[in-house]
Amino acid sequence: MESRKPAVAILDMYKGAPNQGMRNIRQLVEQFHLPYTIFDVRLKGELPHPSAFDIYISTGGPGSPFDGQDESWEKDYFQLIDKIVHHNAGNTPNKKYLFAICHSFQMLCRHFNLGKVCMRKSASFGVLPTHKTELGVDEPFFSGLEEIFYIVDSRSWQVIEPNEQAFNQIGARLLAIEKNRPHIPLERAMMAIRLTDEIFMTQFHPEADPQGMMVYFQQEEKRKAVVEEHGEAKYNDMLFHLNDPDKIQLTQQTIIPLFLHRAISQNQLIHSLS
Q: What pLDDT is attached to residue 182?
């Protein structure tokens, strides 16, 4: 029996802002030849019916993770997340998989009370190292990445002070934290969490590709904006790291592809047995 291809719902959280993330995500999904539909969540309030899709990718986006508190789209978004969790908690074998990125990571941390969601003292931007935790060393989606691996970071918000009670209640696992700097008395931000066996979330952008970023940030308007906000040294440092195949390219070719491979494999196994 030929198993059908799982359907992907891309939850666009960019609120109409120009970005590279959507292009990167589409390319990763298209590499697996999966059918997908894009839903403009924050701008148009579009959300999929949970029974219609097998895989969900919830994107990054601009602004505060608290922006939607008084808006109907946020209520509907969290209802979708809860339905996915509830579905997976049942006896049904056809689990639904969710990957949440940056802005979506912050929102899910709010929703499940996983830690303190707050603004940073200054924005984090560039190609930066992140550290695996003890649990992260054995994380399958980090397979092939060093204990300290490189990520694309772009955020003014953070999630700190892990709520151990909430983690234990859900069974969540903290897999990576912000660069460890013992000499600086600041709480390290959480950077990757496996919420459940089917739900994975990163504070950083694992979808980012070095070639696309290089072209994007070499545009004069973008170069000027980065230099004005972060300085010439930070801009040049980012371009330097983009050329290293063991940094962003390795991360981009590892985390989301392994997530998609697992979701597809589980889906095909279930349908081949049905």
A: 58
